Amino acid sequence: MKNLVKLLAVCLFFVGCDSRIDMSAKDIKIDRDVCAHCKMVISSANYAAQVVTKDGKRYFFDDIGCALAWLDLKDKEMQESSYIYAADFQSAEWINAREAYYTSGANSPMHYGFAAHKKDLEDAENFDFAHVKKAVIGKDNESNSTAHHTH
Predict the structure, then answer these.
(1) Could you give the C-alpha distances from 31 to 40, 43, 74, in angstroms and in order?
(2) Which residues pair with 41 in a beta bridge?
(3) What percent of the chain has pLDDT over 90?
(4) 149: confidence class by pLDDT, cuts 50, 70, 90
(5) Which CB contacts under 8 angstroms, 24+ apart, belong to 102-109?
(6) What is the pLDDT of residues 83-139, one digit of tens each?
(7) What is the CA radius of gyration of the chain?
(8) How far is residue 23's CA from residue 90's CA, in Å, rounded to a whole number?
(9) Is residue 78 within 8 Å of 53, Cβ to Cβ?
(10) Burial of 56 (0-12, 13-18, 19+ CB in 10 A)
């Protein structure tokens, strides 16, 4: 009986431990991980994207366009509650895709043509997330976006 109480206490300890879900971006294994949308091997860190759902599941993409097209197939709640990360084109570091600046004309892996940037490029026309989303899926319903269309 004493052992059962101890076992129960240990189980409750582990169940009660911090159960926060990690919503941060994780590294992609280039030339090994596969795009969740188009199923191509991810070959460029500079165009990669990832979606982290509210339950902590991660999905990797070779192009921000693939991430947006994939998310468009999901329910609205998942679209709104998921974290979307894009790789900064210059550094390949993860940035919030909804707050990023985008330039068009890039030779992105799936030819959506957008590159994400953590800051406004003064020598290029910059677009916001809503513009990229509309260009990829043809809908204009992203309410969390800030206009970055400049120059």
Answers:
(1) 9, 5, 26
(2) 34
(3) 74
(4) very low
(5) 102/64, 102/126, 102/127, 102/128, 102/129, 102/131, 102/132, 102/148, 103/127, 104/135, 106/47, 108/47, 108/63, 108/64, 108/65, 109/40, 109/42, 109/43, 109/44, 109/47, 109/62, 109/63
(6) 999 999 999 999 999 999 999 999 999 999 999 999 988 888 999 999 999 999 986
(7) 19
(8) 23
(9) yes
(10) exposed
Q: Can you tell me which residue has the tokens 């979307």?
A: 84
DSSP H/E element including 52: strand 49-52
Residue with tokens 């940037």: 117
Comparing C-alpha atoms, which of 120, 105, 95, 9 is closest to residue 45?
95
* Pair of tokens at residue 75: 């329910």
Mapping DSSP onto H, E and C, the string for 115-151 reads EEECCCCCCCCEECHHHHHHHHHCCCCCCCCCCCCEC
pTM listed for this prediction:
0.79
Block residue for tokens 């269309």: 149
Residue 94: φ, ψ to 5°: -75, 135
Q: Are β-strands 58-61 and 49-52 bridged in parallel, bridged antiparallel, or unpaired?
A: antiparallel
